[in-house]
Amino acid sequence: MAAPLDDATRAIVKACVPALEAHGPAITREMYARLLADPEIRDLFNMSHQEDGAQPKALALAVLAYARNIDNLGALGGMVERIAEKHVGLNILPAHYPFVADALLGAIAHVLGDAATPEILGAWGKAYWFLADILIGREGQIYRAHDAAPGGWTGWRSFSVRDRVRESETVTSFELAPADGRPVMRHRPGQYLSFRLEVPGHGTQRRNYSISSAPGGDAYRISVRRTPGGVVSEWLHDSARPGTMLQVSAPAGDFTLADPAPDSVVLLSAGVGLTPMIALLGALTDGEAPGAVRYIHGTRSAETEAFGDYVRSLALAGRIRGDLFYSRQAPAGADGALIRHDGRITADWLKGQVDVRATYYICGPDGFMRDMVGVLRESGLPKAQIRYEFFGSASDADLVT
């Protein structure tokens, strides 16, 4: 366990909050520029999040949250767990942490100049290693659990594409089976897989994709939306066929059902944010007497609506209640199983639908999640009843903690 930070260190870190508010993104951009100059370190990162600026912004927000909560680090438990799970998915090891320390402290000194006194750099060095020790310890626990689990593994494991299914005009599912023919670790619904891929013309790429299949069986399924210009998504759609080999790390992520599952659950998603929800639906409706499940999803049109037949079959069987929103064009005619809506899911609509007994699972674009989470918080739901998953980096200040 990491030794507690001393009062002087915490006081200096807190005093740096205004500087972080003003210069945090510049510091993290400089930090990543230093880190990514090393090809071995660069290969650990999803470079698309560097190109769009999401990763530096997310780290700046996380560092700011750390400084603001240095006297109450328990408030950051969710953020720390998300980071640890993400690190495990990408196979981050203790040996990588010194590189980050050097880059971070060097970036602080570079951006703040003479204001980065030896006392400030010393305090941030202590604060970094305090948090790093917590992460290293938690990541070690997760790695050991993966190694000990039936069908589990650590590091990268070869999987073969066993099948592919077109779910909509933009989403294709890929069924992945281990090349060694051995069992797979039972995932928790809502988790994701991380991939190390060699994409022709683009070198090594790292990506995370939610598992869209319910637990059980001898394979995993991911469902990927084709993103125009997306290096990996376009390569998967165009080139990944049965027999294509992919390098995969064990299931990770904390966007999961409690055990036992809550009696009342609302799954609230937009766009490709539905992929973990499909796995959650499978788990929630698998028993003889499922709890109350409501599925609310927003998409552009019937052509972009993935897993529509599956969702309707659950609704027709009385296993779920459902609302579908179509932002561009709702299908013509009535749907006896699900309630159809024109337009997007809005905060005003959700305000009239809040069930204070339910646990909400939310996934979609950051702006959508911010609006939905804001309504639920304003309605008085406790933190434990509001769960959300980021696709990419947490670049919205309202969602970091």
Describe this structure in a few short sentences.
The chain is an alpha/beta fold and 401 residues long. It has 13 helices and 12 strands.
Features of the shown structure:
six-stranded antiparallel sheet; globular; 3 domains; Globin-like; 21% strand; 401 residues; alpha/beta; 13 helices; Elongation Factor Tu (Ef-tu), domain 3; Rossmann fold
Secondary structure: elements and pairs:
Blueprint: H1 7-15, H2 17-35, H3 39-42, H4 47-51, H5 54-68, H6 77-89, H7 97-112, H8 118-148, E1 157-166, E2 171-178, E3 192-199, E4 203-210, E5 220-225, H9 231-239, E6 245-248, E7 264-270, H10 274-284, E8 292-301, H11 308-316, E9 321-329, E10 339-342, H12 347-351, E11 359-363, H13 366-378, E12 386-389
Parallel strand pairs: 7-8, 7-11, 8-9, 9-10, 11-12
Antiparallel strand pairs: 1-2, 1-6, 2-5, 3-4, 3-6
Helix pairs in contact: 1-8, 2-5, 2-7, 6-8, 7-8
